[in-house]
Amino acid sequence: MLVRKLSGLSDEKARLLFSGMRLSDIVERIRGLVHAERIAKVGLPDELLADIENCLDQLGHISSRRHNLVHRGATYFSGALISANSMIAKTITSIETDIIEEKTLNDMQLDCGAIFLRFVYIAKDDSQDSEWLSALRLRPWHYKPPSKSKNPKRQGEPVVRSQQPHTSRASRRREAMKKHRQS
To answer: Is it the case that residue 37 has pLDDT exceeding 50?
Structure first.
């Protein structure tokens, strides 16, 4: 509905162009349409365009957590879903674990509902001065994305890389024989 309003296309044409697209592709198109609206200075006021951007940012945070949960798999333990990339991580240090509690899932669901309502109210011409939309816009997001400080790199210190262990049995045997001869 919002894409149709921003693009100015009829319902049929918008469905034809945007159906089957991934969320990230649609978000990219919406951001492009918002940018075009700002340049043209016609159509939606800047306040509503900023609201759309804010909603898209929050939707991106929620989508990222959902992606990890769905594509990495999850295990339910002690009231939380635990998801990790341990099966596809190239090194032990690159393993990421994500713990999502039930409250976090509920917060994400509430925010998705709020985003939907904001988009519906923005897309309808008659509701832009609605008190409901104003109250919804003032409400803070329930879901707060986790901080990205997993492996902070220290600046100024040289990076020391340890030699990776040999993977084949023969190479490990050669290495052990070499160490034995030296001692």
So the answer is: yes
